UniProtKB/TrEMBL annotation:
Listed Pfam families: DBI_PRT
InterPro entries named in the record: Nict_dMeBzImd_PRibTrfase (IPR003200), Nict_dMeBzImd_PRibTrfase_bact (IPR017846), Nict_dMeBzImd_PRibTrfase_N (IPR023195), Nict_dMeBzImd_PRibTrfase_sf (IPR036087)
Pathway it works in: Nucleoside biosynthesis; alpha-ribazole biosynthesis; alpha-ribazole from 5,6-dimethylbenzimidazole: step 1/2
Protein known as: Nicotinate-nucleotide--dimethylbenzimidazole phosphoribosyltransferase
NCBIfam families linked to this entry: cobT_DBIPRT, PRK00105.1
Class of the enzyme per the UniProt entry, highest EC level: transferase
Gene: cobT
MF GO annotations: nicotinate-nucleotide-dimethylbenzimidazole phosphoribosyltransferase activity
Domain of life: Bacteria
Active-site residue list: E318
Compositionally skewed regions (Basic and acidic residues) per UniProt: 17-26
Length: 351
């Protein structure tokens, strides 16, 4: 019963009538048709997802999921593992990039510790400790998670999405924090896309080229051990991470509650890829914020047929790239909602 494949959260279909009305409205606004480019499509898609004529992303719900990775013992990151827990404290005290961005956007920021090696500090304000385990096992040698742990982590994410829905969130952003998680994400993406690790493994927080080659060999060993071609949530259990599984659960959970999702960088996109492989109807609910500098992101975006909004060379995680793209989505909504029509403004339309 606790096999990950039993996870059957289903996203609903977007509203076709709201989509059609939004398309008609865009075509009647005082601009040549299509001249606002992808901002037009963005507003139309939001109308269909929010089943409204007046789309809005004023209420943004951000959940950052943190977890540690057993594969760190293989020397695959430029930073030590304790940074994961230290950054949780930084999120709590408002000093992290995502803290500043959330504050700027007036977004809620939910920090969830899904499992660190460093014992949780229960005094930290605003941090939820929903530890599934003290980090994952080393995926190069054994499954990162048991099936039960993967399901528990999916549930942690789904619960965060439920909180976003209770707070009437109009857009969900998931962020990740986990030293070593670019190794897990690359391994997962290789298994799901049948790719060579040398094409998907990158520097993460800052490995040099020798470090990247070593990391690719670690991923290769993991793939040999766990094999490919299994169902997506089993691949997630053996090669993923606690925060990555929580992100998969959160993304599915948000869409199933009719909250559109703005996907961040490499790690969140891999969590989204797992979710789309599990529930293809989820794809409709995803906007892609940016192209991360982590080289494997490009391949994952292509597999999801995704055109990100921004390309700023960011590679931080935390949901930061998604937060940076929110103002663009807000502008797309304002244009859709507030521009005059040809008729109202007395402007001649094309003959
Ligand atoms: O989101 C991205 O595209 C991204 C790319 C590179 C690194 N990161 C962040 O850096 C950490 C993982 O890097 P590493 O080198 O320890 O695997 C983790 O906390 C991620 O949030 C994030
Ligand atoms: C300092 C630091 C902050 C981060 N935020 C997300 N991943 C990170 C990795 C490091 C090393």
């Amino acid at each position: 019963m606790n096999a990950p494949s039993a996870w059957t959260v289903k996203p609903p279909a977007p509203d076709p009538a709201a989509r059609e009305r939004a398309r008609e409205r865009q075509n009647g606004l005082t601009k040549p048709r299509g001249s606002l480019g992808r901002l037009e499509q963005l507003a139309i898609t939001l109308c269909a997802l929010q089943a409204t004529d007046r789309p809005s992303v004023e209420r943004v719900a951000i959940s950052v999921f943190a977890g540690d990775h057993g594969v760190c013992t293989e020397g695959i990151s430029a930073f030590p593992q304790e940074v994961t827990a230290q950054m949780i404290a930084n999120f709590a005290s408002g000093g992290a990039a995502i803290s500043v961005l959330a504050n700027h956007l007036g977004a809620s920021l939910d920090v969830v510790n899904v499992g660190t090696v460093t014992p949780p500090d229960h005094q930290l304000p605003g941090v939820r400790h929903e530890m599934v385990s003290a980090g994952t096992a080393n995926l190069a040698r054994q499954p990162a998670m048991t099936d039960d742990q993967a399901v528990a982590a999916l549930r942690v994410g789904d619960t965060a999405a439920a909180r976003a829905a209770e707070n009437h969130g109009q857009l969900f952003i998931g962020g990740d924090m986990g030293i070593g998680n670019t190794t897990a994400a690359a391994a997962l993406a290789c298994a799901l896309l049948d790719e060579d690790p040398r094409n998907l493994v990158g520097p993460g927080t800052g490995l040099d080229s020798e470090g990247v080659s070593h990391k690719a060999r670690v991923v290769e060993r993991a793939l040999e051990r766990h094999g490919t071609g299994r169902e997506p949530l089993s691949v997630l259990a053996s090669l993923g991470g606690l925060e990555i599984a929580a992100l998969t659960g959160a993304i599915l959970g948000a869409a199933s509650r009719r909250i559109p999702v703005l996907v961040d960088g490499f790690i969140v996109s891999v969590a989204a890829l797992v979710a789309v492989r599990q529930q293809p109807a989820l794809r409709d609910w995803l906007f892609f914020a940016h192209r991360s500098a982590e080289p494997g992101h490009q391949r994952v975006l292509a597999a999801l047929d995704a055109q990100p909004l921004l390309d700023l060379g960011m590679r931080l995680g935390e949901g930061s790239g998604a937060a940076v793209a929110v103002p663009l989505m807000r502008l797309a909504c304002d244009l859709h909602n507030d521009m005059a029509s040809f008729e109202d403004a007395g402007v001649s339309n094309r003959s």
